[in-house]
Design goal:
The chain is mainly β and 192 residues long. It has a domain of 129 residues. It has one helix and 13 strands. It is globular and about 75 Å long. This is Major tail protein.
Length: 192
């Protein structure tokens, strides 16, 4: 039973997306401090993401069908398979986004351009989303995802966005789908 002392409220006012190999150990929120750096151990920062279109999760399926006997109604349930997906809108139009969302792309140093092929291949990675609420931090760890980018979207007033479609899969090692790191004070105070 929740009490005023056990409730954990959190506004995800600031957020960061990191990626790593499937089933990589999650970032430790007790030692995390955002430093605008590209890597945190083996975790790679995706770079800036949209504040206009935050990460959206969508669930499909999971519908319930009630079972009955001739004598009684609703004696059991059968649930349909459920799929969970997300969209991350990257505003970082550089290597990190292309490495994550466009498997098989090529980079040409001379023209400083990315060429995306028509293979439609995706990238398998673990993701961790770290959110900040003042002096508190929380996190969502996804041990196994399948990621594919799509065409950029343009806007007259906001940053260009490159949508990354994410299919959330179970960990091949543990079977876990996701892990939530509840809000807690920063172990290391964030930079002002």
């Amino acid at each position: 039973m929740a009490t005023a002392d056990t409730v954990k409220l959190h506004i995800a006012g600031i957020g960061h997306v990191f990626y790593n190999d499937v089933d990589a150990d999650p970032l430790d929120p007790t030692t995390f401090k955002f430093l605008d750096e590209s890597t945190y151990g083996d975790w790679i920062w995706l770079g800036d993401t949209s504040s206009e279109n935050l990460i959206e999760f969508e669930t499909d399926g999971g519908d319930t069908t009630y079972k009955r006997t001739w004598d009684r109604l609703k004696t059991g349930v059968v649930r349909e398979d459920e799929t969970i997906s997300a969209t991350i809108n990257s505003v970082n139009a550089s290597a990190e986004t292309f490495n994550l969302g466009f498997a098989g792309h090529t980079y040409d140093e001379a023209s400083q351009s990315y060429t995306v092929d028509s293979s439609g291949r995706s990238t398998g990675k673990a993701l961790q989303i770290v959110t900040e609420d003042g002096s508190n931090i929380a996190g969502l760890y996804l041990p196994n995802t399948d990621i594919k980018g799509s065409f950029p979207t343009f806007d007259l007033e906001e940053y260009m966005e490159i949508p990354l479609s994410v299919a959330i899969l179970s960990s091949p090692g543990t079977g876990a789908l996701w892990q939530w790191f509840e809000p807690r004070p920063y172990a290391v105070a964030p930079a002002a």
